[in-house]
Amino acid sequence: MNSSTSPGPSTIDGSSAESTREVLGAEEHCVFECSGHVFAIALSAVCEVVSGKLATSIPQAPPVLIGVVELHGDALPIVQLATLLGTPARPYTPASQIVVLCSEDTRIGAVVDRVHPLRVIDYTSLTPTEHHLYRGWWREATTRIAVLNPAALVVQALETVAYHLQHACGGITLRTRRTNRPS
After folding, report:
1. Radius of gyration of the chain (CA)
2. Which residues, including other chains, have CB under 8 Å from residue 107's CB and lie 6 or more apart?
3. How far is Cα 131 from Cα 59, in angstroms, rounded to an integer?
4. Is residue 136 part of a domain?
5. pLDDT, tens digit, for every residue of 158-183?
């Protein structure tokens, strides 16, 4: 790659002027706004961005769980990212944008206010933070962007929902166990 040029922003469809795979220590990130703050999450953890989905609410669900939407024939749980991050949340509408996150075999939708063009973020340029859901802070011109840890975010969402549903359901344990049944 020509060192005199740097890759510019690209769109969520993955188009860009140059391949970012050649940039060592850097990765493309999906950048978005949520409750007046700007966040980024590694594009490798984003399956897609969707909107126009009606959510089906779940009885006794905690505030972080908006409900589920149908996506490609499957039920996708939708979480209020703002609530998960401890910031004020806007009401969910079908016009809300959903960043679909993938971590191992788990997919969840995170509601955001607005998605921006992709950015290449060099991890070596992050300012460290103690927050377990953040990888660090990245500065672009006058904007400070919180770079999120996608695996920690998915785990936090699942644990928060499971905890609240366990208490709402009288303390039952919500996990599956394999049992050895005689054949």
Report:
1. 18
2. 47, 74, 76, 100, 101
3. 31
4. yes
5. 998 888 777 666 654 544 444 444 44
